[in-house]
């Protein structure tokens, strides 16, 4: 016994003695946010950026590891290392763990695709590099006064992340099966009751399932205005009873009578594709087009948005406080919001994700190029979506709603 | 060098590694759940993570279903594995057949889980054949086997993986025992079944039960199978623990460790059972 | 030609209370075959391992050719060990087995083949070169093992019960083969066995080992006929041990005074006599000379070549090996007279 | 009774020479075949999915042949070719390390009795029955500190926890059937320690040690939970990549990856069967 104890403590001692895997950062943080960008670009040359992002879509993977990486290499001498994760929470976990272990420099993550509660967690923990975003050369194409840019799920961005894409929630149906989908959430809920077993939603913490529940929550509250601003327990309790009541009432009419829910959006998509249910949804409607192309959805798939409005959000890229290659990460972040790169990303043939830029700041022909991008028939028209956009709730609301759902409906 | 020094030298690397990594990891995990983090020099003893872990919604149900999955999978896999070994021997134990029985042994669990998802889902391959044969009309008519409250698909995935393991161990035990004892029993008037029941089975039992225990403990701690095939609630213990470990709420992490220690505690109980079972054997001649 | 000297050789295993080998002094004269005989567990094999360098001694030393072996590893001692189960390498052919030692020494392959061939010839196994050990009979395997040992031209050959796994007739054949090979090569050989007959049959010299110590050593016939101690006598199957007090060349025993042919050594406290040296005569037969006593036949056991007869000569029991014709005239209960010739009576110490 | 049936009644059996036994052996073969079919059934949809896309209920067979999934699998942008290399590298590294560390311990356990042996055995068995989740969570912080978390090296080291016990146990059973006196003989014939190892011990035990190595490789190759936790998602090995595509709903790519993931296991299995067959031919030549 004593030997084992010694050995195990020995490991701890070795860990304590080891210098936290450090790599010298050529510029201190203060210099990074104030230095002329040419200085940063020069410092970035030859660095490798570990870019963490959700890795379950081969179009995204191909775009990031392919043309995007090639451009960065050619133009800035930066190697982009795509690190696919199954869930962005894993990246947050990584940075949190590094912080706990006292690794304040030389961290594994240089850049992460992020928004919502993941952003809030890192920001509130002081785990992000801040104050640089609006100073990036290409930041002039971003409308920082737009509330949907300046706030990420209610958390003020405050220069701690750079907008990359916009997304808005949409529903999908199979036009061969459901020629006329219900136009409002109320009508949709009635449809579900009239067609038992033909709908379900993914259980939180799935990102998309959680968004669907928020729509019901906002519907119960009578609109997004009722839930705006910081979290308020009294307001939550008032709405929660009604909202979870609706969802509980709905349960017997759901797929498998609500005994279980799909645990992620892919399961819901598969149910939809195999005619087990008649609807699916996504916070990123371009998925429907891509899904038709890569065989995840039937060719007759179409998408729509509820007339009462659907949630819209912006997703960003952020740089952790302890990133090993901050200069290069800044250069990459800046390049990601260049009109040229945003246009390439918005092309459905590449990815199709909507731009985060303010088209009014672009030269007319550049703005026109965005407007002229083709649209897949399965994907809802961008203007139709924009007309129905609702701002996201703050991340605290989000947590409370998910936890409430798990307590009341999901068990 | 003395004999004793040589022995110590041979054993030291393994003992050091397992004591350091395995016991050390376990010890650090346990300390963490009571608020002690040697690495960060933190020492605030608390029982909060345990309260949080055991107070999380569905935790008891999770422990319950995990034990159910492990028991059911172990029972079915052991019976079928034993049967497979005996059948293989009766069938003459052709090399190809033995190879095919063993095949799943080499397949990662996540692959088996995905295969079963596509096979047994309500719109899976068997359901489609049922539709083609006119037995069912809609996917909903097909029995619920995936993401079901009884964890049928999860259990079947483990069965598919562990039957070969039990069979291989049993075959090894049978080979070690040889046919002599059974032949003697037959010549003394025992029927084939009696010879097995009273002579062969008691001889191979320790090995088979040890294999069953390993299967049981293994199922307790495997994440990928219930993650792919389990329902949204209650979740199997490893799934719940991993989800809590990667939760946004920092306070969830020690609670997640506490949950995984519950699984580890059940595993330790299994280890003691195995030790008892194995005490009759010179060395554990099993492998997987 | 090399002699081997063991000086105060001692080995105590870790955790053991008694020494497995205790202060053994032994000289293996160059070119001779010495047998080391003793019951199992007496430390014989340990002596071999100590000589071969497979175990470090706790005390004392081994000299081969006058050189201390203290820091010489086994592979450089020139002391080849051959064990009871042939110990052939199962993954090598017969030829590779025989050539093994030469290969370890970096001898070139052609020479190895030639030497291996010669050795296989010597053990009459030409033609078996490509066989695997699993395809050999026990005797063949043992012959290959002998060839493998001899091919490296060892300074010392250490044989650890080489015949114990063989059938009786094979044993004799193999024993003769070893003996003739040893004579032909002149390799100093230590042959360990627990078989008394084997020990005296092949040896130039015999050492008896009991409980880790050399109890007696000398010419085989001397050891066999004239054990020095009760224990050696018992080991060589002499059950006829009579407690005795000595008065010059007279031993005073329970059977009365027995005359001896020579002076007893100091400390002697018993006399022994080998069973085959006891004479048996009918009760009434004419008696000439001393050392006779009356006895009753207790039991007669037929052994093929002879009969083992047990006699009661109160207060002791004696065993004699007698010829069949003599035994034919006897029945249990018959009264006889036994003759214990003075030259066969041998005083022993405790 | 046909010749095939006669061959099939090989297992010594007192009552083997009756017609009834022939039928029994045939029944056993049919039953074994059925069991094998059941065990392998999950691979049917996997195979089909890997060569098609857009295959929806109720189609029993894929609508069309489509090799796009294999295109994704082969493209460098998907990271899959790199993941294959990474997985192979980690598994090979874990195998080599656990052999170097574990085989000596296996020798000690297989050949020697020593005080404390029970504790060493328990320590070696423990990782087999104690779910690794808690251990990995406990080690995570230490590995981060050492700069090992999120690295292939760290993952490889943590894989030693499950691989080492297999190597130790398999090699202990290999050594328990080994007579170390052969090594003594080789020494006295003029072989140095190293030469004995190279020319005698290793070649003699090669088949058994190869099996130990194959187990280690497969255990590491299939590892999911430990890789996920210690790798922090940054060391995407094949099982992780597979799950990534499963959770993205790309059944076609997932199926192709699944097949790719099964491949080394298959190779290993066939290889080990051949090694063992060769060994049994060697040991059995001419009969013992």
Structure report:
- In chain A, the strands form 3 sheets. In chain A, strands 1, 2, 3, 6, 10, 11 and 12 form a 7-stranded mixed β-sheet that branches. A 3-stranded antiparallel β-sheet of chain A has the order 8-7-9. Chain A has a two-stranded antiparallel sheet with strand order 4-5.
- Chain A has 2 domains: 9-164 and 314-378, 3-Layer(aba) Sandwich (D-Maltodextrin-Binding Protein, domain 2), CATH 3.40.190.10; 168-312 and 387-410, 3-Layer(aba) Sandwich (D-Maltodextrin-Binding Protein, domain 2), CATH 3.40.190.10.
- By secondary structure, chain A is of the alpha/beta class.
- Chain A starts with a helix and ends with a helix.
- Chain A has helices spanning 2-17, 29-34, 37-44, 58-76, 88-100, 116-124, 147-150, 185-194, 207-221, 233-250, 265-273, 286-293, 326-336, 339-346, 364-371, 382-387, 395-408; strands spanning 48-54, 79-85, 111-114, 151-152, 155-156, 161-168, 170-174, 279-282, 301-304, 310-318, 354-355, 389-391.
- Chain C is built from 9 helices and 21 strands.
- Chain C has helices at residues 44-52, 94-104, 109-122, 138-151, 168-185, 196-202, 220-225, 230-235, 324-328, and strands spanning 4-11, 21-28, 33-37, 59-64, 67-68, 79-82, 156-160, 188-193, 205-210, 213-218, 241-243, 245-247, 250-253, 256-259, 270-272, 279-282, 292-302, 307-313, 316-322, 335-339, 346-348.
- The longest helix of chain C is centred in the middle third of the chain and has 18 residues, at 168-185.
- Chain C starts with a strand and ends with a strand.
- Chain D is globular.
- Chain D has 2 domains: 2-41, no CATH class; 69-285, MetI-like (MetI-like fold, Orthogonal Bundle), CATH 1.10.3720.10.
- The longest helix of chain D is centred in the last third of the chain and has 34 residues, at 251-284.
- Chain D has 288 residues and is mainly alpha-helical.
- Helices cover 75% and strands 0% of the residues of chain D.
- Classes of the chains: A alpha/beta (411), B mainly alpha (288), C alpha+beta (350), D mainly alpha (288).
- At the B-D interface, helix 1, helix 3, helix 4, helix 5 and helix 6 of B face helix 2, helix 3, helix 5, helix 6 and helix 7 of D.
């Amino acid at each position: 016994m004593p030997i084992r104890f010694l050995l195990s403590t020995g490991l701890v001692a070795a860990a304590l003695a080891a210098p936290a895997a450090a790599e010298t950062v050529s510029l201190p943080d203060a210099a990074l946010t104030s230095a002329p960008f040419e200085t940063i670009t020069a410092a970035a040359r030859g660095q490798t950026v570990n870019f963490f992002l959700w890795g379950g879509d081969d179009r995204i993977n191909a775009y990031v590891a392919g043309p995007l990486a090639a451009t960065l290499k050619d133009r800035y001498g930066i190697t982009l290392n795509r690190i696919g994760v199954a869930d962005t929470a894993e990246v947050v976990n990584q940075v949190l763990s590094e912080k706990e272990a006292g690794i304040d420099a030389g961290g594994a993550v240089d850049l992460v695709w992020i928004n919502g509660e993941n952003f809030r967690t890192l920001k509130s923990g002081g785990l992000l590099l801040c104050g640089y975003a609006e100073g990036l050369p290409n930041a002039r194409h971003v409308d920082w006064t737009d509330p949907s840019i300046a706030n990420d799920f209610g958390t003020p961005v405050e220069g701690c992340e750079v907008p990359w894409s916009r997304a808005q929630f949409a529903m999908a149906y199979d036009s061969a099966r459901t020629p006329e989908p219900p136009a409002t959430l109320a009508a949709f809920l009635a449809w579900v009751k009239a067609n038992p077993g033909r709908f379900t939603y993914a259980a939180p913490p799935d990102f998309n399932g959680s968004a669907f529940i928020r729509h019901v929550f906002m519907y119960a509250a009578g609109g997004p205005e009722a839930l705006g601003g910081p979290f308020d327990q009294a307001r939550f309790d008032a709405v929660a009873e009604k909202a979870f009541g609706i969802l509980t009432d709905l349960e017997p009419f759901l797929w498998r009578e609500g005994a279980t829910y799909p645990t992620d959006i892919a399961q819901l998509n598969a149910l939809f594709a195999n005619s087990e249910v008649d609807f699916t949804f996504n916070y990123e409607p371009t998925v429907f087009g891509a899904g038709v192309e890569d065989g995840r959805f039937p060719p007759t798939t179409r998408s729509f948005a509820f007339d009462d409005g659907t949630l819209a959000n912006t997703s960003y890229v952020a740089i952790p406080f302890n990133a090993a290659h901050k200069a290069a990460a800044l250069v990459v972040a800046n390049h990601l919001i260049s009109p040229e790169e945003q246009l390439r990303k918005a092309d459905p043939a590449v990815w199709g994700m909507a731009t985060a830029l303010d088209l009014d700041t672009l030269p007319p022909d550049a703005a026109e190029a965005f407007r002229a991008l083709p649209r897949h028939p399965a994907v809802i028209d961008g203007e139709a979506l924009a007309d129905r956009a609702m701002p996201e709730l703050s991340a605290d609301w989000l947590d409370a709603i998910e936890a409430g759902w798990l307590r009341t409906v999901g068990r | 060098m003395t004999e004793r020094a040589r022995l110590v030298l041979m054993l030291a690397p393994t003992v050091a590694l397992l004591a350091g990594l395995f016991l050390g990891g376990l010890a650090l995990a346990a300390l963490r759940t009571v608020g002690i983090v040697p690495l960060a020099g933190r020492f605030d003893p608390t029982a909060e993570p345990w309260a949080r872990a055991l107070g999380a919604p569905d935790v008891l149900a999770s422990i319950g279903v995990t034990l159910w999955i492990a028991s059911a999978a172990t029972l079915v896999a052991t019976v079928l594995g034993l049967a497979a070994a005996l059948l293989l021997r009766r069938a003459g134990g052709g090399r190809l057949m033995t190879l095919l029985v063993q095949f799943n042994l080499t397949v990662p669990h996540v692959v088996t889980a995905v295969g079963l998802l596509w096979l047994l889902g309500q719109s899976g391959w068997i359901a489609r054949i049922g539709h083609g044969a006119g037995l069912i009309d809609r996917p909903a008519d097909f029995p619920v086997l995936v993401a079901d409250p009884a964890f049928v698909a999860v259990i079947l995935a483990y069965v598919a993986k562990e039957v070969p393991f039990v069979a291989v161990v049993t075959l090894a035990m049978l080979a070690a025992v040889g046919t002599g004892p059974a032949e003697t029993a037959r010549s003394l008037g025992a029927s084939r079944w009696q010879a097995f029941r009273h002579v062969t089975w008691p001889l191979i039992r320790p090995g088979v039960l040890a294999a069953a225990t390993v299967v049981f403990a293994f199922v307790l701690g495997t994440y990928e199978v219930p993650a792919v095939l389990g329902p949204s609630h209650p979740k199997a213990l490893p799934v719940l623990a991993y989800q809590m470990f990667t939760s946004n709420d920092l306070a969830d992490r020690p609670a997640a460790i506490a949950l995984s220690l519950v699984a580890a505690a059940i595993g330790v109980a299994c280890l003691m059972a195995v030790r008892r079972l194995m005490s009759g054997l010179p060395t554990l001649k099993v492998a997987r | 030609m090399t002699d081997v000297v063991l000086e105060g050789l001692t080995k105590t295993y870790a955790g053991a209370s008694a020494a497995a080998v205790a202060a053994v002094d032994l000289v293996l004269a160059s070119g001779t075959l010495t047998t080391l005989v003793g019951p199992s567990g007496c430390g014989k094999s340990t002596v071999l391992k100590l000589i071969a360098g497979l175990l470090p001694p706790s005390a004392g030393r081994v000299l081969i050719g006058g050189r201390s072996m203290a820091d010489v590893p086994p592979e450089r001692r020139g002391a080849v060990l051959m064990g009871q189960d042939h110990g052939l390498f199962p993954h090598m052919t017969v030829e590779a087995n025989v050539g093994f030692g030469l290969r370890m020494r970096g001898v070139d392959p052609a020479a190895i083949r030639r030497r291996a061939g010669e050795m296989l010839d010597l053990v009459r196994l030409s033609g078996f070169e490509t066989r695997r050990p699993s395809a050999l009979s026990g005797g063949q395997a043992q012959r290959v093992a002998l060839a493998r040992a001899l091919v490296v031209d060892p300074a010392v050959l250490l044989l650890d019960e080489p015949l114990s796994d063989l059938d009786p007739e094979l044993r004799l054949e193999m024993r003769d083969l070893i003996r003739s090979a040893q004579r032909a090569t002149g390799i100093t050989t230590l042959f360990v066995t627990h078989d008394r007959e084997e020990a005296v049959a092949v040896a130039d010299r015999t050492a008896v080992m009991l409980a880790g110590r050399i109890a007696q050593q000398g010419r085989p016939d001397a050891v066999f006929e004239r054990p020095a101690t009760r224990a050696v006598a018992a080991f060589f199957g002499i059950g006829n041990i009579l407690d005795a007090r000595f008065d010059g060349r007279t031993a005073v025993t329970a059977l009365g005074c027995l005359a001896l042919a020579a002076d007893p050594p100091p400390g002697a406290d018993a006399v022994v006599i080998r069973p085959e040296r006891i004479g048996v005569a009918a009760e009434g037969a004419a008696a000439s000379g001393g050392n006779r006593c009356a006895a009753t036949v207790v039991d007669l056991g037929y052994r093929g070549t002879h009969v083992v007869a047990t006699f009661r000569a109160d207060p002791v029991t004696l065993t004699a090996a007698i010829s069949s014709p003599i035994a034919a005239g006897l029945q249990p209960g018959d009264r006889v007279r036994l003759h214990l010739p003075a030259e066969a009576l041998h005083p022993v110490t405790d | 009774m046909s010749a095939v049936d006669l061959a099939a009644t090989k297992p010594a059996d007192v009552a083997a020479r009756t017609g009834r036994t022939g039928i029994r052996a045939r029944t056993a073969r049919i039953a074994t075949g059925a069991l094998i079919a059941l065990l392998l059934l999950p691979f049917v949809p996997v195979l089909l999915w890997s060569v098609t896309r857009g295959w929806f209920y109720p189609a029993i067979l894929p609508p069309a042949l489509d090799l796009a999934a294999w295109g994704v699998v082969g493209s460098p942008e998907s990271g899959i070719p790199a993941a294959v290399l990474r997985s192979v590298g980690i598994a090979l590294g874990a195998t080599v390390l656990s052999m170097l560390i574990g085989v000596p311990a296996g020798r000690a356990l297989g050949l020697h009795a020593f005080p404390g042996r029970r504790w060493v055995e328990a320590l070696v068995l423990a990782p087999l029955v104690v779910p690794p989740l808690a251990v990995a969570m406990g080690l995570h912080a230490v590995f981060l500190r050492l700069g090992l978390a999120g690295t292939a090296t760290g993952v490889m080291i943590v894989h030693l926890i499950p691989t080492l016990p297999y190597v130790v146990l398999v090699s202990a059973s290999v050594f328990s059937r080994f007579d170390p006196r052969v090594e003594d003989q080789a020494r006295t014939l003029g072989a140095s320690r190293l030469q004995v190892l190279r020319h005698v011990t290793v070649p003699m035990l090669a088949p058994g040690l190869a099996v130990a190595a194959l187990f280690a490789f497969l255990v590491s190759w299939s590892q999911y939970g430990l890789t996920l936790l210690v790798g922090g998602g940054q060391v995407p090995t094949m099982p992780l990549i597979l799950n990534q595509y499963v959770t993205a709903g790309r059944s076609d790519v997932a199926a192709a990856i699944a097949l790719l993931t099964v491949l080394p296991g298959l190779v290993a299995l066939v290889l080990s069967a051949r090694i063992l067959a060769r060994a049994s031919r060697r040991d059995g030549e001419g009969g013992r």
